[in-house]
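Ticket closed. Logging final result for LysE family transporter.
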Amino acid sequence: MTWTTWLQFAAVCMLGAMSPGPSLAMVLQQTARGGRGGGLAAAMGHALGVGLYALAAAQGLAMVMAAHPLLFKVISCLGAAYLIWLGVQGLRAAARPSRAASNEISAAAPTSAWRAARTGLAVSLSNPHLAVMFVALLSQFVTADMPAGSQVLLIVTAMGLDFGWYALLALLISHPSILSGLHRKSRWIDGCGGALMLLLGLRILMV
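Final structure:
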């Protein structure tokens, strides 16, 4: 795997993690309830779910590629089409007026780090978007002769970036001005992520 390939994969994973959504809402909420420890635990649980989805997608795609090359080509094209759809949705979201993220921190009873971790894991595993996303994304990077080490690198990258982003937010939750600034940049995040996914999908379809 080249550095260029890894950087492309890392960029898509990072922008995907940064996109506002239920995972962001969950991490902020668990941080509010359990402090920094609760937020970090939630981030760790969510990253574990991301890693499990990435592992399942990588292993499944490698098996399909080896046994049914034509089927893998079809999956790859469908994945590229899905990335293009996500890209269009991101650009449309960026064009809309800035929205208040659906991540209001509700006042609730304090929670333990273990409960926060379980919540993070449940949120990631219950999100079918992640499963489809990793099948679509990894189909563009996994190759028939890719060694196990490279597959592990992709999985660890997805987990590490996911945990790093949400852990950073948990550490910054005590500074509302910083978090509100991130919310104001949501259109920029949507636009950049949408453009990157759109270009990646188009590149695959044109090969």
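The longest helix spans residues 22-67. No further action required.
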